[in-house]
Amino acid sequence: MAQYTTVNGSVALITIQNPPVNALRAAVREGLFNAIQKASSDPLVRSVVLSGQNGTFCGGADIKEFGNVSSMSGPLLVEVFALMETSMKPVVAAIEGFALGGGLELALACHYRIGHSKARVGLPEVNLGLFPGRQVIAGEALKLGLLDRVTDHNTVDTALAFAKSVEGKPLDNRRLGNRPCPPLENMDAFFEEAMKRVRSRARGASAPVVCVQAVRGAATLPFHKGMELEKVLLGTLFNSGQAQASQYCFFAERAGARWSMPSGARWDTCRALSISTAAVIGLGTMGRGITVALARAGLSVVAVETQEHQLAEAQRVVSHMLKGGGQVSYSSDLQAAAEVDLVVEAVFEDMALKEKLFKLLSSICKPGTLLATNTSTLDIDRLASCTRDPQLVVGMHFFAPAHMMRLLEVVYGPRSSPEAVATAMQLGKRMGKVSVAVGNCPGFVGNRMLKPYLEQAYFLLEEGATPELVDAALEEFGFPMGVFRMTDLSGLDVGWRIRKEEGLTGPDVPAGQPTRSRHGHRYSPLGDLMCERGRYGQKSGRGWYLYDKPGGRVARSDPWLRNFLEEYRVRNALVARPIHRQEVLERCLYAIINEGFRILDDGIAASPQNIDAIYVFGYGWPKHRGGPMFYAGQVGLARVLEGLERYHLAHPDVPHLEPSSLLRRLVASGSPPIHKWNQMVKGHRSQL
Ligand SMILES: CCCCCCCC/C=C\C/C=C/C(=O)SCCNC(=O)CCNC(=O)[C@H](O)C(C)(C)COP(=O)(O)OP(=O)(O)OC[C@H]1O[C@@H](n2cnc3c(N)ncnc32)[C@H](O)[C@@H]1OP(=O)(O)O
C-alpha cells in the first residue's frame, strides 16, 4: 500500500500503491503512517520523497469508504497529515498525474511540492457533496503557491535531488499550519458577498455554502480552531444526505461504461469497430453541435446539408465553434457520406423523412458503415428495417447543445449488433460523454420519463397553478430551470410535432374527439393551443413566458397567459384551486420516478444508476439529489407509493400516476436498498 525504499543513501522514497488512482483507503493511510514513522526513526534517513505509483500521485480519500464512515478503520487522514507535517525531516511531494481532494491535502502536509507540468491539482469534493474547489494545472498551481517547483523531467528524480538539497534546513516556515493567512481588507464584507453569490448559484446544494463558512473559519481563526470548525462542518455535510447523493452520482456516471444488453452481450466481451471518419447529415442546431463534438474527438467529419443557405450558415457557425481546430469538410450532396465509417443522421424529427434517408444511406455508404440516428423518440428498429445491414443501426441521442451536454443515450434496437453498441459507446467516451446504453421504446429512457413530467405540469396549470409557481418549486428543488422555462428554451413546437406524429393532435385526430381526453385518458391540449397561437417559446419571443424579442433569454411573466389560462378553465368548466409547492413537487417528480420503475421493469434501462446518470447529465436533475431513482430511495419507496396511490385516486384517468408494479413489489419486499432493486426486476439480468 505504501512502498518504502531508501535512495541516494539518505532519502526515504515512499510510493503510494493503490491502483487505479491511489485512493487513500484505510490500508494506504496505515501504510503511509508507518512509513513516515519508519523514516523519522531511521538515523540514516535525512529526507523523504512521497510519490504515487503509475504516474498518479493520489485521487484523494477513498469514496467507496464514505458509504460506511462509521466502520472506517486505520488512522484518520488528519492524523497522517499531522505526522507528516511535524516530521523533523523534510518531506517532498513528487506530484505526477493528479493530486485531488485528500491527495492534494496530503501534498500540502509535505514541506515541499514538486509537480510535473502536466499534473492537475485541486479540491473537487464539491462534486461529492463535500468541501469544494476547482482543479488547476501545474503552471497555475505554481503561481498560486500550491507548488514550489514545476518540472518537465522525471518528477520523482527531480524530487529526490531536491530533497537531498534541503536536508538539514529549518522546516518551521515550511509547515502550512504555522503560516498565518494573509490579512484581507474588508474581510467580513468579502465573505458576505461570497456567501451571497454562492447561495444564489448553489440551488439548494449545501456543500458550496458550507465551504464558504469553512474558508472563512480558516482565514479568521487560529489554525487548530479552523480545523475544529472544518470537522464540525464536514460532519454536517456527511449527515446531510446530499453528500451520499453526490457520491452515488460519481459512481453512476462511471457505471454506464459497463453496459450490457438483454442478449447477454456486454462491454468487456464486445469489440468496437474502428472509426476515424464520419458524416453528419442535417445541420440544424443538433447537427452542428454533433459535428463539433465528433471533430473535437479527432474524427475527420463531412457535414452534409442539402439546403445551401443552411449549409453556409452551418459552416460559419461550426468553424467559429472549432476555432480553426478539427477536420471538417462541407457538402450539400449525400454522396459525400459514401466512404465514411460512421453516419450520424440529425434531420428533422419526422419518421417518413428519416426512413427515406436511411434507405438512401444504406445504398450509398460502403459496407460496414455504422448508421446512427439522433432521434429523440422514434423507433430505431423501423429505421433499421429500411437498411441493408440492420445490425449496424443504433441511436445516438445527443442533447442540446450537443458539443457541450455530457449525456449520450446509445439506443439499441432488437437487431443492433453488440459491436455497433460497443462502437457508439466508445465514441461517446472519445467525445468525453457520459454514455448510457438503453433499449428501444418511444422516448427511450430520458424522454419517456419526461412525458409524464410535462403532462403533470400541464395538468397543474389546468387545475389552477401558474408556470411561475411550478417553475419556482422545481428550481428550489435544484433544477437549473423549471419545466416551463425549459420547454420555452427547447421550443414548444418540438413536443407539438411529436404529439402530431403520435396522432394526439393535428388533422389526424378523429372529429368529435373530446378536447381533454385521448383514448379514454386525460389529455391537456394546452401545449397544442400555445403552438397554434405561434407561441413556441424563446425562438418566437413568446411561450409560457414573454421575452424581449425572438431569441431573447430573459423570461418575464405574461399577463396574456394568465388570461389565456383563465379563459381556458372557464371554457372547460375547470375551477382553479390553490396549489401547494409540495403537490407540484410530488406530482411532477413522482410521475418521473414511476416511469423510471416501469423502464427498469421493461428492461429498457439496465440499472437504476443508468437512469439516474441520464437524468443528472441530460435533464438537469440536481446532483445533490442523486437522480430520480436514488431520490425515490431517499424519500422512501413506501412514501412514493403512497403519494402515487393518493394522486391516482384523485386522477384515475391518468395512467402515469398508477403505481408501477415494480415499485409495489419493492415496497412489499421491505424497500431494499437501490443496489438490490435489479433482483426484483422482471426477467432480471445480472449486474456487472
Ligand atoms: C464526520 C467526519 C467524517 C470523517 C470522514 C473523513 C473523510 C475525509 C474527508 C474529507 C477529506 C478528503 C476528501 C476527499 O479526498 S474526497 C475525494 C476527492 N477526489 C476526487 O473527487 C477525485 C475523484 N476522481 C476523479 O476525479 C477521477 O477518477 C480521476 C481524475 C482521479 C481519474 O480519472 P480517470 O482516469 O478518468 O478514471 P476514472 O474516473 O474512470 O476512475 C477510475 C476508477 O477509479 C475510481 N476512483 C476514482 N477516484 C476515486 C476515489 N477518490 N475513491 C475511490 N475510487 C475512485 C473510479 O470510480 C473508477 O472506478 P470504477 O467506478 O470502478 O470505474
UniProtKB/TrEMBL annotation:
Enumerate the Gene Ontology biological process terms. fatty acid beta-oxidation
Q: In which pathway does it act?
A: Lipid metabolism; fatty acid beta-oxidation
Q: What is its main location?
A: other
Task: Give every 3-hydroxyacyl-CoA dehydrogenase C-terminal domain span.
Answer: 443-547, 584-670
Extent of the signal sequence: none
Cellular component annotations (GO), alphabetically ordered: peroxisome
Look up the domain of life of the source.
Eukaryota
Which residues belong to any copy of the 3-hydroxyacyl-CoA dehydrogenase NAD binding domain?
278-440
Catalytic activity reported: a (3S)-3-hydroxyacyl-CoA + NAD(+) = a 3-oxoacyl-CoA + NADH + H(+); (3S)-hydroxyhexadecanoyl-CoA + NAD(+) = 3-oxohexadecanoyl-CoA + NADH + H(+); a (3E)-enoyl-CoA = a 4-saturated (2E)-enoyl-CoA; (3E,5Z)-octadienoyl-CoA = (2E,5Z)-octadienoyl-CoA
- Which parts pass through the membrane? none
Q: Recorded E.C. number(s)? A: 1.1.1.35, 4.2.1.17, 5.3.3.8
Q: Does the keyword Cell wall biogenesis/degradation apply?
A: no
UniProtKB keywords: Fatty acid metabolism, Isomerase, Lipid metabolism, Lyase, Multifunctional enzyme, NAD, Oxidoreductase, Peroxisome
Q: Where in the cell is it found?
A: Peroxisome
| Gene Ontology terms for molecular function | (3S)-3-hydroxyacyl-CoA dehydrogenase (NAD+) activity; delta(3)-delta(2)-enoyl-CoA isomerase activity; enoyl-CoA hydratase activity; NAD+ binding
Could you say which protein family the record assigns here?
Belongs to the enoyl-CoA hydratase/isomerase family.
**Subunit text:** Monomer.
In Swiss-Prot or TrEMBL terms, this protein is called: Peroxisomal bifunctional enzyme
This protein's species is Muraenolepis orangiensis
